[in-house]
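Internal ticket - ligand job 261, 2-acetamido-2-deoxy-beta-D-glucopyranose:
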Amino acid sequence: MTFQKSSSTSSIFHMLILWFVIVLFCADGLRAEMGTTPNLKHIVIGRCYSYITLVCPNSSYDCEEIWREFEEAVMRKSRCNVKIKDYKRMFHATPQTLTCGKLLFWSKTRELMHSYAAVTRRFWTLEDTLVGYMFNDLIWCGQEEKDRGFDFNSCPDWSTCVNHPVYSLWRQASQNFAAAACGNITVLLNGSIENAFNRKSMFGGVELDSLNPRMVDHVNIKVVANLEGPFLESCTQGSIVDLINVLQTRGFRWTCTDSDL
Ligand SMILES: *[C@@H]1O[C@H](CO)[C@@H](O)[C@H](O)[C@H]1NC(C)=O
Ligand SMILES: *[C@@H]1O[C@H](CO)[C@@H](O)[C@H](O)[C@H]1NC(C)=O
Ligand SMILES: *[C@@H]1O[C@H](CO)[C@@H](O)[C@H](O)[C@H]1NC(C)=O
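stdout (structure tokens):
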């Protein structure tokens, strides 16, 4: 399906614009009182089988092995000390080749991004990779004392942890995703907030630095504001100008549009 800017599709987008937010990063999804997602193991393994059976048939991943490596990474450390490198073996078990020219990065445009990706079917987001698919929206942490299993009663907030188990996994996944990007990439940013490009977001803090200017052909930035505004940032206004400067300094070719999708 190719995307055409007809009034019906744009009104779908405008409806979708009313949803979203939350960068992977954002503490909202991860309140201190919330513990590990119930049935974590079944969800993760089930999603893995769903991925290898329905999403990417014929991919040869060992779902049980991936779970074992994941569990190992989280269990063997105390709950606030799961480092990126602790997931190394898990990431080894989940190698993935990404198609050039199809990657979509986003920040604070979560729902829009997913519908954009789904509607156009042209794009791949982090959540379309095996690891992103398996762990999307889940929470986990070990017990205070290591080797005692997952804590289903409470998990610490990102901000109170040196190495939060959820954050470390996403950070590595984001880094891998960005480092593998090639051809044209698309970056979707929210024009209705200040600091649409935020160095503390997963995109600004991790992915941007992992992009390789020799592999990436063009960085195509799309700034999307809410239908009803406010219109705070654009290609020539606010933090997006900083992003463009960073891209230029690092030798990327880029384009930026702020009027449509
Ligand atoms: C999966 O592999 C089988 C056997 O190699 C092949 O017949 C089938 O078409 C493949 N399916 C997909 C979706 O690639
Ligand atoms: C932009 O962010 C605001 C505030 O977080 C959110 O309400 C809105 O849906 C987002 N808009 C787009 C287009 O992503
Ligand atoms: C890549 O992006 C540039 C700039 O938007 C565009 O001119 C070019 O056609 C794109 N290439 C592909 C293969 O889409």
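Auto-summary: Confidence is low (pLDDT under 50) at residues 1-10, 12-32. DSSP finds nine helices and four strands in the chain.
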